[in-house]
Each structure stands twice: as C-alpha cells, then as structure tokens.
Amino acid sequence: MVSRSQKAAIAMKNWLTGSHEEDEVRDDTLAVMDEVMDDRVNIWTQLPEHIVRKISIRLPVPKLLQLRAVCKQWKQLIDSPDFPRLRSEIPSSDGTNFLLLQMNCSFLNTADDWTTLDDAEFAVHSLNIHDLCLYNPFLHNWYKLPPSILTQKEIFCRSYHRGVWSIQILSKKRKWLDDDELRILVHHPTSGWKREIPNTFGPKLRTLLSLVVDNETNNFKLITTGCAETECSCTPASCVHTQVYDSVSHRWTTAGNLPTSVLLFKTNGRSNVMHIVIGHQVYYMISRISRAFRPSIEPPDDQSRHTWTFLSFNLHNYCWTVIDGKMPFTDVMHFRTVAFERNEAIVVAQLTSTSSYDWRSSLGWKLRVYTWDRRRHHNVLTWREVPVCPPPEDERLPKLFYRQRSHRFAGSWAGQGDFIIFVSGSCWGHRALLYNITSKAWTVTDFGPRMTKQPLLFITLPFDLTLGMCPTGQGY
C-alpha cells in the first residue's frame, strides 16, 4: 500500500504541474502509480515542513483547498493561524475570480418583488452547488472547488459579496409565499462556514436584501429594505423601512428610511437592483420598468420606458443619499446591463444594438463601458466612456458566436476589476469569453467538455476566493 506521505507527494506533484487527474485517487490506482513513481515525487516525501510551507503559501487558493483535503498534516498546516499572515507577505495572484454555477431548473416568477439582477437568476427551486468551477483571469486557469452542500430544501441566493452568500431557505411544510418559515443563512462555500441570522425583525422574502463583508475583519452586515413589521402603517406603494444586521452585535438595527420621493415599492412595474460595495458606502443602481413590457430584441415603447435611480447607503451612519445626475443611457433593458467596481470607481457596462458588422457577427450587440470616478465627483454622477475593441477574428470564434447573430446575448455575464466574462450554455457549451478593459484583449477559454446535448444554464459571479470565513468580532 501507498503511505499517506506518498499520497500527499503524488497530489502535490499533480496540482503543481497542473495535472487534470481525478481529485480523489483510488487506492488501486495509487498502487500502480507506486511502481512507476519517479524521483521527483520521492523528493516531496522527504521535504521538511518549512520547505513545504514556503511552497504552499505561493499557491493559488484553489490549489490550497485541494491540498487541504489530502492529509491531516497538510490540513493543519494550511489552517494554522500563521498561514494567512505568511501569504499576506508575498505577492498574490488570486485577485479577481469568477465563480461559475450551473442551474437545475427554470426561473420563478418574481415580478412583484424587489430583486437584484443576479437574484432574478438565482430565484430557482434547486441550485446546483455540487460542482463549483472557478476561473482566475490572471492565471488563465479553471479550478474545480470542493462541493458545498447546504440543504435539500428550496433555497434562494438573495445576495453575495466577496465570496460569501446570503441564502434564504424555504420550508416545504408551507407555501413559498408564507414568510413564517423563512430562514436566512450567511454561507462561505469554499470553507463550509455558515451562520443562521436571527429574524427578530422578520426580514421578508419580498424585500431587498444586501450582504456586505468587511475586507479586513470578515465581519459582515445585512441590509434589508421594505415592509418588515407585522403592523406597518405604510401602504404597498411606500414600504420604506430599512434594517441592518451586524455580525458583531448579532442584532438587527433600525436605519434611515428610503427616500420615498424617488422610490416606490410594488407599484405598476418592477424594480431591478444592482449594488456595488466600495469602502463603507453601498451604491444601488435601480432600474424601473413597466410591467406591460416584455423583454425582446425590439426596443421598449413609450409606455414601458426605463427609469434609473442611483442611491448610496452609508454603513457608518445608516443613512440613504440620492446621487444627482443622469445615467449614460436611458431605455436599456436590465439584462443588458452590469455594474461593478474597478479601482474604487464604479463601472457600468451595457450591450447596445449596433449596425457594426464586427459586433453583429460576434456578440450580436456592441459592448459599451462607462466609468464614474466617485473620488473626484462624489456628489454627482459624471460618466466617462471607455473605448472597447470588438472581438478579433479567431478560428474559435465562429463556433462560439453560432446563433448569437441579431439576438440579445443569450447567456450570463458579469464584471469585476479589469475583466468582463460572458458565458452561454445554450450557444457555447462549456466555453467562456473574457474581455480585459485595460489591455482591450479578448480571450476564449474552455472550462470542461460538454457532457449533455441539453442546453445548459450557467451563472457567473465575481468571487473573492479565501481559505476561510471567520469574523473577528471587531466592527467596521
């Protein structure tokens, strides 16, 4: 039989060299490999622990998550309190990552609810979290993460930030619109850490729920808006309450009300929200659309015009502020717009109709990128357009863009930092298209063979990959 140290050595060799062998090597396979084990593998079994530590602190987090599952000795090494400190002293190649999720079923009808753009896609009966794929655009590598299974019940991912999910679980004993049996969990999928949030204020399914995780302490806050009181006197058109849950105090606190002059809840229309966290400010970009509008490739008519509002919420004084100024566009459908942070500025990207052959023969729409430098113009929206190059001619692109011509982008896309990623299971299978805002370079990448002929539904999330999630208990 192969010893535990030899198993660890084989695993280290495979992961350092980028081998795509199975994550769990069976004993019979190991017995065969033992006979042909080369000198390089034997060296790993003889390395002192401090040498292994120096090597491991330079590995990307996905590699460390895999190595941690090899043996107890390596798990103790990676989980030790000194390990994060040692990693912080060397340059990191983790940076921006994108988590890829494969959905199991169709969307739910949430037309009456406040939902974020991503929540509309997350409102599914069953979220497949058995297979977690993660892409590092700096290293141009895909990684398969250990599975993160929470529950067999119906779950809704309501918000996410820095690699942490805020999930609502529905009891099968009651109807899904009944709020009494709702549970809220904050979950870190890569480590398995989770915490159930008390529902003293009774956060409802039909409210806006935003998760904010502190970059240094891992303490987190949940912001919920809407009508969360059983005997609320407000009307359905003006549910303005705001509460904040603090992981340090473990309590919900009443915050400033939403400005009713610009926002109405549950009127004749639907609100879609994107939130961007920068420091102690949470920015909300809200799109409102008439309920009569049906998404299609035609532009909306006069009776279904989009209205956009920009708000900020201060995590220090718990107050809302309306940001003056206009968006760089007006009648743009929410599924063709994404917002994210880049160098402490806010970036808004949109897909617009165009007559340019370079774009119509590729994505079918033209990608436009705008940025707002909040440090220079913090009280008013001042947008600057960033030039974008169309995808180049590439032998892989004709297949990638098959069936995309003259249609809205039939897939999911997301952005963070310098990168925007596009995936389309129905048209591209297990392929993704990446755009670098700074270098203006397009990259086609494969994240696995297509295993089924059925159309696949993929969702991409910006993801800060960390080894663990343990709030320090020291506030913001």
UniProtKB/TrEMBL annotation:
Domain F-box: 41-86
Matching SMART domains: FBOX (SM00256)
InterPro entries reported in the protein's UniProt record: F-box-like_dom_sf (IPR036047), F-box_dom (IPR001810), Kelch-typ_b-propeller (IPR015915), SCF_F-box_component (IPR050796)
Annotated PANTHER family: BNACNNG10540D PROTEIN, F-BOX DOMAIN-CONTAINING PROTEIN
Organism of this sequence: Riccia fluitans
Designated name of the protein: F-box domain-containing protein
